[in-house]
Amino acid sequence: MIPPKQLGRNPASSEHPQLYAEQVRLLYSNAQLGIVATLVNAAVLVFILRTVVSYLVLTIWAVCILLVSIARLVQFSRFRRALSESAHVGRWGTWFVIGLAISGIIWGSAGIFLYPVESTIHQEFLAFVLGGMAIGAAGAFSVVMSAYIAYTLPSLMPLIVRFLAAGDEIHMAMGGMSLLFVVLITGIAFRISKVTLASLRLGFEKNDLVIYLSSAKDDLEKLNRELSAEIVERRKAEEELNRHREHLEELVKERTSELEAFIYSVSHDLRAPLRHIRGFADILLENLAGKLDERGKTYLERMHLSAVKMSRLIEDLLSLSRISLKEIEWTKLDLSKAASLIVSDLRESDPSRRVEVRIAEGLSTDGDESLITILLTNLLGNAWKFTSKTANARIEFGTLLKDERNIFYVRDNGAGFDEQYREKMFLPFHRLHTEKEFEGTGIGLAIVKRVIHRHGGDIWAEGTTGKGSTFYFTFSNHHKRH
């Protein structure tokens, strides 16, 4: 099924082979009126010029007009009987143009043989008649511009040349005005032609559209029946998938709960043995240090540090488990105040450091106080840690408004990170720096992401190695900054 073509096409192209046929039919439909106008105007012109032009010349000219008009009437009659088809329309169009051209030549000969040399008034009347005929041709025959031109140019140009050849001011002016008249009337004819052709194309487009829509209707009805059957099948499949999905969700929820409980249980159970290991290592270092060689002391120190590191890891795992299991207790939170308390604790833990910290006032949100405190502690703690090797360290906690929502951020000018790792950095145990560079367990950002997701928000990061980083985060329920 081919959709209807657009209107902006070449009339002479084969896009609509019946377009030119319709133009020719319009020419012939106006032919009778044109022939009648020719005979009437010829009779009036002969009558008016009878006193200034030779009777013999007038008679010969009138007979020529009559013979051409009769020939055109015969041509019109034959065309009507033939009921022209588009395949043969070119021939009929050509004959019509030839007939108009002959008629135009005869009318143009009036500007030579019927020209009243001694009477300016009769000259003006002759120009008036020829101009009127040209106007009529613009309305009747401009549907095919070649037909209009074939008539107009030979009918008017001889008189214009005769005016210009006279040489005096009046005739020069009359010739110039006549020439301007030809230009203007041709422009009008061209516009009429464009409008007529556009109307014809629109008619063909309408027919095409009706055919197209009828075909489309049949296709749509067929497609609708097929879709209805497919919808029934899909509904059955969706119902089956929903049952399976609900079952899988129950299994995932059950397994997740079991896994979280297992991690919590294992982590909790490991705390006591680690405390004992660390405690015995401390006792050995204090009481038996003098009896051990350097290698023994090194082993004990490594055992002590490993126990401390494992304790931290277990505490972080417990925090991660608690976040998943904890019931959210929604309350109004003052984030600016909470951040200030966290920064105060960081300064007390490392009083030798000089860090410029900027905390915007009036930051607030709805959320669980303990979980949001864990989130800010990790983000601000990371900023504090990763600026430890930066001169003129700066940390900023603020918010910005984008797409009618508040986006909070923690920014620092510390170690930064490579942008290619910004998605992996939120995975548990994934570290972007070595233990020697910056201590940690690699769980902090996983905890932060878990807290954000528990609050229906999102978190992402931007950074450059050696130039700092910015962590952006949102909450599903938060208040705009005042």
TrEMBL record:
The chain crosses the membrane at residues 27-48, 55-74, 94-115, 127-150, 170-192. PANTHER family: BACTERIOPHYTOCHROME (PTHR42878:SF15), TWO-COMPONENT HISTIDINE KINASE (PTHR42878). Residues 206-254 form a coiled coil. One of its GO terms (molecular function) is protein kinase activator activity. It comes from the Bacteria. It catalyses: ATP + protein L-histidine = ADP + protein N-phospho-L-histidine. It comes from Candidatus Sulfobium mesophilum. InterPro entries: BphY/WalK/GraS-like, HATPase_C_sf, HATPase_dom, His_kinase_dom, HisK_dim/P_dom, HisK_dim/P_sf, Sig_transdc_His_kin-like_C. Its EC number is 2.7.13.3. Residues 265-479 form the Histidine kinase domain. It is an enzyme of class 2 (transferase). Keywords: Coiled coil, Kinase, Membrane, Phosphoprotein, Transferase, Transmembrane, Transmembrane helix. The keyword Lipoprotein does not apply. This is histidine kinase.
